[in-house]
Amino acid sequence: MVEEITYPGGTRVLVWRLDEEAPQLLLLCRQEGIPVEDLVELPVKRQREKAAERLLMCHAMGHPVTLSHTHQGAPVVDGLEGLNISITHTMHLVALALNDSAVIGLDAELADRQQVLRVRDKFLNAGEQQFISPDNQQAHIIAWTAKEAVIKAERNSAIDWTGGICLEPFTVGDDETVILASCGDRRYRLTCRTMAGHFITVAMPLIR
Predict the structure, then answer these.
(1) What is the pLDDT of residue 69?
(2) Residue 208 confidence (pLDDT)
(3) CA-based, 20 to 30 A from 175: which of 26, 81, 127, 191?
(4) Cα–Cα dist 115/8, whole Å
(5) Closest CA to 117 of 138, 91, 94
(6) CA angle 72–73–77, rounded 5-degree value
(7) Strands 2-7 and 11-17: what pairing?
(8) pLDDT confidence of 113, banded at 50, 70, 90?
(9) Which residue from 207, 123, 110 is spatially nearest to 161, judged by alpha carbons?
(10) Distance (Å, whole) CA 138 – CA 106
């Protein structure tokens, strides 16, 4: 079942808890008239991811569309290059963010991903480590998804996680956490929600 959330500024986020395996997803694509011939030679994991995102795009747009990617790797809908899109996958979830006018970024991580505690020095700068306790797993995962979402919005995977993106102090909410961040001369408002055992974070630029 697909859940949809609407955010201020016209951003739509669609979330699909993914239990289906690749053969079932390929069959669903064919039933919807979505081409999948280019997927059959891919590894099964990639088949599953690509088929799921095509199905979710079809659900969002109301009909099959063709996805391609910019030279920075950002997804675009052929014929609708002005539509801003961000896609994220985990083993059990695929999510899609769309906005007609503003750049957006989206990321999701499992809520029990303990590994982030061991690599905090790789993505948290000194200031962020002051307000994110070393044992606060939720805050670490939210910070990780926030920085990944900003990188996707910036369309620049070369951004330094510690020096290039700065998060302002935030408090983890019960269902929703709001974070302000800066990347170069652009500021972002990030909203993180808990859904289907994941933290799902969308980044939207603040309009000056």
Answers:
(1) 82
(2) 61
(3) 127
(4) 32
(5) 138
(6) 115
(7) antiparallel
(8) confident
(9) 123
(10) 17
